[in-house]
Design goal:
This protein is mainly α. 76% of the residues lie in helices and 3% in strands. It has 16 helices and three strands. The chain has helices spanning 3-7, 10-35, 39-60, 65-89, 94-117, 140-159, 161-169, 171-176, 181-199, 204-222, 226-250, 256-274, 280-308, 317-324, 329-337, 352-369; strands at residues 315-316, 341-344, 347-350. It has a three-stranded antiparallel sheet. The chain starts with a helix and ends with a helix. Its main location: membrane.
Amino acid sequence: MSLAVLLNDYTLQNVVMGALLLGAISGVLGSFAVLRKQSLLGDALSHAALPGVCLGFIIAGSREMGSIMAGALGSGAGAALMVLLLTRYSRLKTDAALGIVLSTSFALGVVLLTFIQSMNNASQGGLDSFLFGQAAATLRSDLVVMAAVTALALTLVALLWKEFKLVCFDPGFARALGMPVLLLEVILTVMIALAVVVGLQMVGVVLMAAMVIAPAVAARQWSPRLEVMVPLSAAFGMAAGVCGALVSTLGRGLATGPLIIISVSVFVIASLMLAPRRGLLWEAVSRLRRRLRHQQLLTTLHRLALAHGDSHFRSEQGLLDGYHGTHTRSAMKRLAQRGLVARHERYWMLTDAGHEEAANILARMEGRVT
């Protein structure tokens, strides 16, 4: 399929625009959920949206997107407030409250879905697609509603940026400053429900939890600063949405929603592996460099002791720094914690265990050379 045909495809245009909106709102709001250690909140709210979808259909009598999204927002926001009330005014922990709300809401949604199927309403066809999403059914009118919800959420984030930031990192200090912390938490939680509502048509109730959390998790690996993390999370979400839409278009018969989730999962895996200072590959390289540095210091001290014929020969900190061309104090402290070196004021000397370790290192090096 040529690029021109792809760009002129009406369905693809709708899916890509919807995916961009979904990626933007879920990436931004999911960042706050991750920082507040409420990663399961997206799962609870997405499942809680199902009874709202059903109630919106029952009230409207058809699959009118505005009514369905309003119902989903109402049930999702209600579930979010229930979680806050349970955690604040009962002895339940957050995970227990989320589990109760998630299971109860989803069970209610399944009951309502079964009831709708018994109504013999011709408009009910495809209503269960909200479970896993049906991006290809997205219309321009649906995009208008999604864009309005996204614009509202992003505007609130921009207006309350400082307040949201303080509530996420230090709610106690925010409370001491007289900020309405509970109200701000409610607003944040309801806004995450908004993100869930936007994603219902694209990825569905079941998969929306991953869309809320995954972009933020990927972005968190690259930067600890909220000012960088939030736009990066939105970028990851939008890129994953576009990738999923394109792959589903090129591979006929492939569902768009799951492909979007797979795409964002690839971003998460890549970030966990490659992100500087936090990635697994970075950590492996850092461990290897620390190990080599420790070996170099041990062999240096061992050779100096042999050259002076004194196993308790002491080397000055400045001498070690100058010899290796870098600061070695932190590395020497780690070796001291392992019992390989001992410190006497600004001097270092090998212990018996250190001499043994250094001799083994030199023996292995000589064995490799020969």
